[in-house]
Automatic annotation (TrEMBL):
<dbReference type="Pfam" id="PF22698">
    <property type="entry name" value="Semialdhyde_dhC_1"/>
</dbReference>
<comment type="pathway">
    <text>Amino-acid biosynthesis; L-arginine biosynthesis; N(2)-acetyl-L-ornithine from L-glutamate: step 3/4.</text>
</comment>
<dbReference type="GO" id="GO:0006526">
    <property type="term" value="P:L-arginine biosynthetic process"/>
</dbReference>
<dbReference type="InterPro" id="IPR058924">
    <property type="entry name" value="AGPR_dimerisation_dom"/>
</dbReference>
<dbReference type="GO" id="GO:0070401">
    <property type="term" value="F:NADP+ binding"/>
</dbReference>
<dbReference type="InterPro" id="IPR000706">
    <property type="entry name" value="AGPR_type-1"/>
</dbReference>
<keyword id="KW-0560">Oxidoreductase</keyword>
<feature type="domain" description="Semialdehyde dehydrogenase NAD-binding">
    <location>
        <begin position="2"/>
        <end position="140"/>
    </location>
</feature>
<dbReference type="GO" id="GO:0003942">
    <property type="term" value="F:N-acetyl-gamma-glutamyl-phosphate reductase activity"/>
</dbReference>
<keyword id="KW-0028">Amino-acid biosynthesis</keyword>
<keyword id="KW-0521">NADP</keyword>
<dbReference type="InterPro" id="IPR050085">
    <property type="entry name" value="AGPR"/>
</dbReference>
<dbReference type="InterPro" id="IPR000534">
    <property type="entry name" value="Semialdehyde_DH_NAD-bd"/>
</dbReference>
<dbReference type="InterPro" id="IPR036291">
    <property type="entry name" value="NAD(P)-bd_dom_sf"/>
</dbReference>
<dbReference type="InterPro" id="IPR023013">
    <property type="entry name" value="AGPR_AS"/>
</dbReference>
<dbReference type="GO" id="GO:0051287">
    <property type="term" value="F:NAD binding"/>
</dbReference>
<protein>
    <recommendedName>
        <fullName>N-acetyl-gamma-glutamyl-phosphate reductase</fullName>
        <ecNumber>1.2.1.38</ecNumber>
    </recommendedName>
</protein>
Length: 344
């Protein structure tokens, strides 16, 4: 497969290159950057030396990029991907957007939360949380790759919501992310002296991944779901730990909770169930496409607590995008994604 990456110098673009360097069915054709056009990618990311010496192009000639590609990954900030997708929509090329532009079934929700007018509402994009929407991804032209917080949180809550084991108006998500989730651009919030030995919440009640989580859970429940979602930054580069709470419906047993998780994920390679009493940790998924899930049933409060851990740049971004690409092209979805977690 001939692959191009629009926006290859951000962390997700770079992570795509790292993962795809070990994919046996991929040839990288074009990589673009408007700020570093003409520069070799291994000058920006020396760790890619001997893996890539590709020179960064401009994305201005999208027709040429599409003509030479089977699939185009878009790793641009929100508001930019839909313009690229619209221009490529009539070309014989598949599109996977790692940003937010194609994640929402209702463009009005996107516009409300992202404060940007959606200019490609006719796209008919598919939401690419592979484990839940694999059948749709198989035939998709455009895939909106999920956000990192959303991947960890939706996978943690999906079995409980689908099996109607919890009260939908009691769901709380408390999630913590490494600083790479904020991107590569410099900002005071991700400055070393601001983050080291520090832990802080941000965008409480207003984080843009909130409606994405609600959209997926609403679809699973077949009724409206509204959650509380509080994100935090932690002083490490990679990883997300999502702790999710919900009140169980009357009479739901721990065994029913166990069965719900096993029924949904027992055949899913990239979801590792640690079981009741299991405690996922970010280091156990670092550098891999795995999502680890454990849960606890608190009989004292009649609540279930589900904990999930992912690498935000892999299962939460580039790895899941490659997983979707594999599904779109009829490959074993593990192809190129068999990296073991980095430990310690």
């Amino acid at each position: 497969m001939k692959v191009s990456i629009i926006g290859a110098t951000g962390y997700t673009g770079e992570e795509l290159l790292r993962i795809l360097s070990g994919h046996p069915e991929v040839e990288i054709i074009h990589i673009t950057s408007e700020s570093s056009t003409g520069t070799a990618i291994n000058q920006i990311y020396p760790h890619l030396t001997k893996l890539y010496d590709n020179v960064l192009d401009s994305m201005k000639d999208l027709d040429s990029i599409a003509a030479h590609s089977d699939v185009v990954f878009i790793a641009l900030p929100h508001g930019h991907a839909m313009e690229v997708g619209k221009k490529l929509a009539q070309q014989n090329v598949k599109i996977i957007d790692l940003g937010a532009d194609y994640r929402f079934s209702d463009p009005k929700v996107y516009e409300k939360w992202y404060k940007v007018v959606h200019t490609h509402q006719e796209a008919k994009a598919v939401y690419g949380l592979t484990e839940l929407y694999r059948k749709d991804v198989t035939t998709a032209k455009i895939v909106g790759n999920p956000g990192c917080y959303t991947t960890a949180s939706i996978l943690a809550l999906a079995p409980l919501v689908k099996q109607k084991l919890v009260k939908l108006d009691t769901i709380i998500v408390d999630a913590k992310s490494g600083v790479s989730g904020a991107g590569r651009s410099l900002s005071l919030n991700s400055h070393f002296t601001e983050m080291v030995e520090n832990l802080k919440a941000y965008n409480v009640g207003g984080h843009r991944h909130t409606p994405e989580i609600e959209q997926a859970l609403t679809g699973l429940a077949s009724e409206n779901v509204v959650i509380n979602f509080t994100p935090h930054l932690i002083p490490m580069a990679r990883g997300i730990l999502s702790t999710c709470y919900a009140n169980l419906k009357q009479g739901v047993t721990p065994e029913q909770v166990d069965e719900a998780f096993h029924a949904m994920y027992s055949d899913e390679y990239f979801v590792r169930l640690l079981g009741r009493g299991g405690y996922p940790a970010t280091k156990q998924t670092r550098g891999s496409n795995f999502c680890d899930i454990g849960w606890h049933v608190d009989s004292r409060t009649n609540r279930v607590i589900v904990i999930s851990a992912i690498d935000n740049l892999v299962k939460g971004a580039a790895g899941q995008a490659v997983q979707n690409m594999n599904v779109m092209f009829g490959l074993d979805e593990k192809t190129g994604l068999m990296q073991a977690p980095l430990y310690p």
